[in-house]
Each structure stands twice: as C-alpha cells, then as structure tokens.
Amino acid sequence: MPDANVLPDATTTDGALLVLAIVLPAAGVLLSFVLGGRYAERIASVLLPSGLFLATIIFADVWQSGHPLIYIVGDWKPPLGIALRADGLSAAMMVAMAIVICAVAIFAHADFGTRPGSVEARAPFAFWILLMAIWGAMNMVFLGGDLFTLYVAIELLTFAAVPLVCLDGRAETLQAALRYLLFALLGSILYLVGTALLYGSYATLDIVLLSRQVRMEPATLVAATLMTIGLFAKTALFPLHLWLPPAHAGAPAAASAVLSAVVVKGSFFIVVRLWFDVMPGMLGAAGAQLFGALGAAAIVFGSVVALQQQRLKLLIAYSTVAQIGYLFLMFPLALDTAAQLQGGGALTGGMLQAISHATAKAAMFMAAGLIYATLGHDRIAELGGAARALPMTIFAFALGGVSLIGLPPSGGFLAKWLLLEAAVATGQWWWAIVMLAGGLFTSGYMFIVLSSAVAPSSEPLKLRVAVPRYQEAAALALALTSLLLGLVALGPVDILLVGRPDSMMVGPR
Amino acid sequence: MIGETTLLASAFVVPLGMLLACLWPPALNRMPSLLAFAPIPALLAVLLVASDSSLAIGSARFRLTFALDRPGAMLLGVAALLWIASGAYASQYLQGRPNRGRFVVCWLMTLTGCLGVFLAADMVGFYFLLALLTLGACGLVIYHETPSAWRAGAVYIGLALLAESLLLMAFVLLAAQIPGDSLLIRDAAAALPTSPQRDLILALLMAGFGMKAGLVPFHFWMPLAYSAAPTPASAVLSGAVVKASILGMIRFLPLETALPDWGTALAAAGLFAALYGVVIGITQRNPRVVLAYSSVSQMGFIVAVIGMGMLAGDGRAALAAAFYAAHHVLVKGALFLSVGVIAATGSRRLWPMLLPAAIIAVGLGGLPLTGGALAKFVADELLGDGPASTIATLSSVGTTLLMLQFLRSLAKSASQDPQATAAAGLVWPWLATAVVSLVVPWTLYLTVPSGTLPDPLSPAVLWKALWPVLLGAVLAIALWRWWRSLPRIPKGDIIVALDGGMQIAVTWGKALGQMDRFLRQWPAAGVSLLMVTIALGAAVFAR
C-alpha cells in the first residue's frame, strides 16, 4: 500500500509537468495578445493538443505509480510556499476537460476560424484567448494545492467565462452575461470571506496542512458554509441557477459547450476538494442531506422545466441544471457511519457523472448549434426534417442523450450504477428514487426532441448553410466518448481513488 | 473450448457487427436483403454449443458473462428461427418503402438485444441488452410515422424505461446481496431468498418484468405497439422480444424456493391477465389488435405458470414456462406474419392461405396434436387440480374463442382485389414459420428430458385438450350472433385513464415551471441564497 498521507513537502519526479500544465495556457494567452488576433487560433491549435498530450502523460504517470504528482513551487514549502498536486481526481478531470476543450476547438474553427488574409476580428480573437484562459484556469482548479490558488483559479475561470456568453454582442446576451457576472461575483465574495476566516484561524490555506489541523469550531464552520454557498452560486445549483439558462442558451454553440461542459465543473470540483479533502468530517449527516436535497430539487425542477421548453438550446441548458443536481447526490451517499466523507463508490460515481456529463453535454450543445445554423432556428416543434439533413448530428445528439439517461454502456450508466450501489449500501433509498426518476424525465425530453427531428418536415427544408463535416465529427466524437466511457469499468484499476488518504487502491494489478 | 465460446460470442457479435456496418452507407444499402442471415449464428450456437460453456469479458470487478442455460437455449433457438423467417419477410416487405435504413438499424438493434438477452448471464449485460432492445423496438414501432405510431412509440418507450428503472434498482439491490464481486444472475437468484430485502427486490423484479410482459394493468402498450409496428416487426416483437421478460422471471426469481405469498400473487396476476386479454380481445375488430390481446392473455398464462412454480417451490416451472413461451414465440410470430400475407391476398386465393393460419391459431387454444396442446399439457402438471387449473381450462376456451374472432377479422381484412396474391417473399417465410411452429414443440418435447409425464397421445389427454376447443367454437358462434350488442372498447382500453393522468401531470409541470420563473428573479434568488446559507450553516452547526 502506498503512503496514503503523502507529505506536502516533496516534489515528486515529473512534478514539473504540473507547472507546465498551468504555464502553457498562460503563455498562449499572453502570446496571442502580443502577436495579435490573427494568430490566436494558430497558437491555440498548437497549444490545446499539446495540453491534451500533457494531461495524458500526467494521467498515465498517476495511474502507473499509484501516487499523486506533487510540485512545490520555488521549493518554498507550504505553508510559506505553494504546492501543486495531481491526484487521481485531478488527473482524470484534466484529461476529460482537455478532450472536451480540444473538440470544442475543432468545432469552433468554422465559427471563429481566422481565414488567411482576413483582418483581425473581435469575436475570434476573444474566443481563442478565452478558451485558452478557461483551459488554464481549469488546470489550476485541478492542481491547486491551497485554497487561495483555487480562489485565483475560480476567478480567472469566471472572468474568462462571462465574455464567452456575450461574444455576439446582442443586447439579450449582454444582459445574460451581466446576470452571470453579478451572481458569480457574489459567489466570489462569499468564497473569499471564507478563505480569510480559515487563514485567520489556521495561518495556512494548504489543503493537506489544513486537513490535519482543522477543528470543529464556529469560525471554521462559518468559513466552510460561506465558501460552499459561493461555489454553489457559481455552479448554478438549484435554487441559485438564475443565471444559467439565459447564459448557456444565448451563447454561441462552441461557447455554450464549454460553459455547460467545463466551466460549471470547476466550482463543483472545489466543493469536492473542500469537503472531501480539507474537512471530510465536518459536513455531517444534516449537511450532506441538504446537499442531496438541493441536488434532488435540481433534478426534478431542471428536468420538468426542460420538458416544457420550446427552444432546443434552452432545453439543453435546463438539462444542465438537472444534471448538476446529480453531482451533489454523491455527498450524502459518500458519508460513512462515522459521518466522514469517504472516497469510494459514491465519489467515483459522482466524478464519473461529471465527466460523462461534460462530454455528452458538449456534444449536445454542438449538435444544437449545427441544427440552428442549418435550419436558422431551434424551435423544437419545427425541427422536422433535421434528421434527414444532418443525420450525423442528430445521431450525436441521441448518443449524448443515451448517456444522460444513463443507459449502458455509457459513462452515465456506470455513474448511476455506482451511485445507486452507494444508496443501497448506506440505506438511502430516497436518493435512488430521485436518480431513477431523473432518468425517466431525461428520456422524456430526449424523446420529444428526437421525435420532432426524425419526423418529416411539413414543407421543403431550406438549408441555410452546409455544415462542415468536421464539426459534425467533433460532436459525434464527444458523444461516442461519453457513450463508451462506461467501458472503463472493464479496466483494472480505479484511478479516481489514487491519492485519497483512505483509499485501499494500489497500482495496476 | 475455444470453438464453442467463439460460436457463443458470434451469436450476438454478428448482429452487432452488422449493426455497426450500417454506419457505412453502401453496407446499409445492402443490409435489407441480409436481415435473415443475422440470427443464423445464434441458431448454430444453440444446436452446437454444450449448455455449460460460457464466455466472460472484463476485469474481476466488472465482468460481462454470456452463457447458455436450458431455458435460455430453448428460447434462443426458437427466437432465432422466428428472426430468420421474419428477416426474410422483412427483406421483401421493405422493397420500395421509404426509410429502409432506419428500419434496418432498428431491426438489428432489436435483434442484437433480443438474442443477447437470452445469452446474458450477468446483470449488467442483461440490462444493457434489454436497453438496446427497447430502443430498437421503439424505433420499429414508430416506423410508419403516423400519429398513432408516434403515440404507440411514446407509450412503449415510456413504460419500458420505467420498467427498466425498476429492474435497475432491483439489480443494484441484488448486487449488494451477493457475497463478493460477482454480478452473475445465478448468484443473485441464489442470494435472493435469504436476503433481508427480499420482498422489496421481488416486488421490483415482478413489477419490472410484469410491465415488459404486459401484465394487466400494464398491458396497454401491447395493442398500441403491435398494431402500429410494421408486420414483420410486430411478429418479432410479440413473438421473440417480449419473451425477454419471461426469461428474466425464470432466471431471477428463486423458483426452487417455495415463496407461497409471492407465488400466489404472481399466479393470480397472470391468470387474471389470461382472462382479461380474452374478454377485451373479443370486442376488437382489427386482427392485429386481437392478436395483441391474445398476447396479453398468453403472456399472463406463462407468468401464471412461473407463479405456480414459485408457490410450490417447483424448479420444473422454469422449463415448463420456457417451453410454453417457445411455442408462443413461433405461433404468435406466424400469426402476425399471416396478417400481412392475408392483407395482400384477394378472395380467390384466400382459403389456401387462411387454412394454415386457422390451424395454428386454434392450436394456440390447445387443438390436439398441435404444439399448443403439447404446451398446455406440459404446463398442466404445474397448475395442479385447484382453481388455477380451472382458470387454465377457461383460458383455453377463451383463447379458442379469441382466435376464432381473430380468424374472422383476418378474413375480413383480405385484399379488396379478388385477384391479388401476396408476393412469394412474404408467403414462404410465413408458411415456414407456421410449419416450424407445429414441428418444433414436438422436437423439443422429445429431445429435452422433462421428467415422467404421461403419454401426450393417450385418449384421455386428447379429450382433455379437445373439449375446451369445441366449447370455444360454440361460444364463438354465440358471440357473432350478439356481436353488435358488444361494447366498442378502444384499443389499449385503460390507456384512456392514462390520458387523464397526463393532464394532471401537465398541470403540475406548468406549476413547477412558474415556480422556476419566480425563483429566477433577482429578489427571489437573493432570498434563496440567504436561506440556503442559513440552512447549511444550521446543518453544520447542528452536529
């Protein structure tokens, strides 16, 4: 068994890779500013794949060794310095997000591509820079070893995400972006206040050091509560979801895909870090049930409202509201008899749900964007003929739906299975009912959309543009990833549990 | 043995491969003419593979296992036969029709799922193939794209996914009961009787499989789906696909252990469905709808056999139910195909076509020497002499009556053009299925050791089978006499109540939508933020 309580003060071999994962996107952003907008896409098209490659190496490293990767910045040990850590959770999330971001980049080439000889345009310039910024911020969220680095990361993430909402500059998207910004700002303040309180109590924000010192006392609990609520607001957990539907539905397709698939996972990941790693014994039964209750309400509300939507992108946005709810069901399910949050089936299930939703939802937003581009609208009732015009796109949309519903062999199914198993093991059948009902609602709105798309059109379809094949391929590739994600269960080792203090997992058998 | 596992794997890998090949447009264009070949490996596997070989894929923690047990092999074999014949029928049926590609894809999905389910020996694989089957079958039901087809498809997939949710819950509960990491159905069924959550699991399993088997009150999808689907699809759906639920019951329910309460409940539900299907079915005019109600009735009877086995803890029920189901696979498939053939046949050639249909139809009621009589004979052993046996005899009378009503509506549905003849590509698969449905039950009966049954050809046995058929025929004459005074019941009968339920659901949904709009206003969101903060603070402080 590896030394689970890895000391925070030792840079492991290959630890420098972690720095590279953060520096690379930052360099890309700066370089784009220096060289100008016409080069932004070219820079991104080099850096994003190398980012995916890097993430894969880190993933393989963590998997092979069964230990987290650690880098101590400048050799200043915490609490003075900053540590970067990649455990199983970070490595898996990094790879998943890099895959999604790369696919989005391919997809976005059609809308935000820079043609040779063209003049610098605002939207493409902004898009590519923001995309790289989001990628860097996400890596920082996954690797950051202290709560302040995470604060910086989540701020960067928010400020990169908000402009993506209003890239087209229409009044309604500007309004949506402003809504998002204000609410996210509220979340930031709450998080920052919580961080300050923690620092005042313990004189460190390093995750490992904090987790050893943290005590049950009012200041800590207040801090944890404020930070959590702040992150809830940024994750758009029901009932704090007011900004999500207009923002995600109004943004350009590529941006929606990033926002729905990637950005909301950042703040969610910090919630997981906070409660699973910093203070696993603090949430308690009542708190965990509250997390679950909010998640369940999100599932029911999000799904039922999605069923009533007239427009495809709004439907998908509400589906995101519902799917975010699933992520929070893992908290009550991960609680053991001693009221400690344990990394086990529930945590694996929850993170798998996050990854599977990321890939599926990105594919669905891309598909919706292609449908919009082709038909000139996304009114669900008038989608007739879309399946004939865009068979590959509709197929990708359907596969994404299969994963959301949780049918095998998708990642959604494996996640659901693990979460249900945890519900049975802990005797919390009520969450099982919510999960199963959510699946049925999901199949309901998928059926509505697909039946409308498959039906023949009442009048001859006027196709506005011919959609490039690679855009369809990008959506399909992501949908297939999500569909086949469940097959990881056939693999030998549970990488998500690498580096968890209580995990019994060892390296490849 | 390597050869045997390869053969076993090819049973579902070949259809799956053909399904994947459909992604390549030239292959998709050729596929309609190849449908009949997809199930052949499955048939070979049944004939050549010893019953104890199995195939496992995956790691120690999550493993997919495929194996042939005796009930599974029996159903797989006849299902493969029906799929071959229906595939040949479909090849002809599809000529000159639109959307062939979609039909073929859905067909192969359903086929892979259907054959795979009969082979799946672990719960995850079983669930996966069941889901694949459901999606494919839904696609087949909505093929014609008429409003009623859409409605049937929506009802079908809604109910099927609901059933699968219940089953998934049951499977997860079962997985928690099995010691170790095994997900094998065999281990699950063994762990079930002593499990502390036995009653919950049994309820979930029975509800889930019951919905899929069309037990009353979850039968309404059958008349809708079978009348909406294209003819060859109706044949395989009503014949082969629906038997997945029967096999599920056989495999998951602990038949060796006597569970009188649950057994009684299941048997009662089954026998009620057996009679209910007849009562509603005789009021119907569309031959497909009559057949669908006959399916409700027959599936109910099979479920009752399983229930009686559970009641008595009699493991023989598994084989008896599988045998009865195997007969029903072929007969119901052949009858649905006959609907298509007769609809294309004019009055001049009607009788040669109607006669084989008549023989197997009345055989379903238990006409001596047919497979139907044999199936009832085998099932009789389990039903005993009590009320169940009386109801079984009643159902026999009723089935004969229902089948005569079917034949009457079938004859009326013949083509208006007296000279019309059905294409040979439709007639031959149908006739082959009809012949097979008469021959195969006898072959199975003679080759599969089924204990010490009395001679099925003794005069007493023959008479016992014959008189309900004669009584049914007499009743049919009476029925047609007073035909006009019968109430007209819409197909799917109680689905009318479901529409009312939908209204209520829509109202509730709208209310939730309004609440969402309210919560997404700034003041409300601010209050929510405050309240969630207070709630979480209180929750963590409360410890």
Helix-strand makeup class of chain B: mainly alpha
Q: Level of helix content of chain A?
A: over 70%
Strand order, largest beta sheet of chain B: 1-2
Q: What low-confidence regions of chain A span 5 or more consecutive residues with pLDDT below 50?
A: 1-6, 502-509
Task: List the topology elements.
The complex is a heterodimer of chains A (509) and B (543).
Chain A: H1 16-35, H2 37-65, E1 69-72, E2 83-86, H3 88-112, H4 122-143, H5 147-165, H6 171-202, H7 207-213, H8 218-235, H9 244-250, H10 253-278, H11 284-307, H12 312-328, H13 330-333, H14 345-375, H15 386-389, H16 391-405, H17 411-425, H18 429-454, H19 469-484
Antiparallel strand pairs in A: 1-2
Helix pairs in contact in A: 1-2, 1-4, 2-3, 2-4, 3-4, 3-10, 3-14, 3-19, 4-5, 4-10, 5-6, 5-10, 6-8, 6-9, 7-10, 8-10, 9-10, 9-12, 10-14, 11-12, 11-18, 12-14, 12-18, 14-16, 14-17, 14-19, 16-18, 16-19, 17-18
Chain B: H1 2-21, H2 25-30, H3 40-48, E1 54-58, E2 63-67, H4 70-93, H5 100-119, H6 123-141, H7 147-177, H8 185-191, H9 198-213, H10 221-228, H11 231-241, H12 243-252, H13 260-281, H14 287-312, H15 316-343, H16 350-364, H17 371-383, H18 387-412, H19 424-447, H20 459-481, H21 495-519, H22 522-541
Antiparallel strand pairs in B: 1-2
Helix pairs in contact in B: 1-3, 1-5, 3-4, 4-5, 4-11, 4-15, 4-19, 5-6, 6-7, 6-11, 7-9, 7-10, 9-12, 10-11, 10-14, 11-15, 12-14, 12-15, 13-14, 13-18, 14-15, 14-18, 15-16, 15-17, 15-19, 16-18, 17-19, 18-20
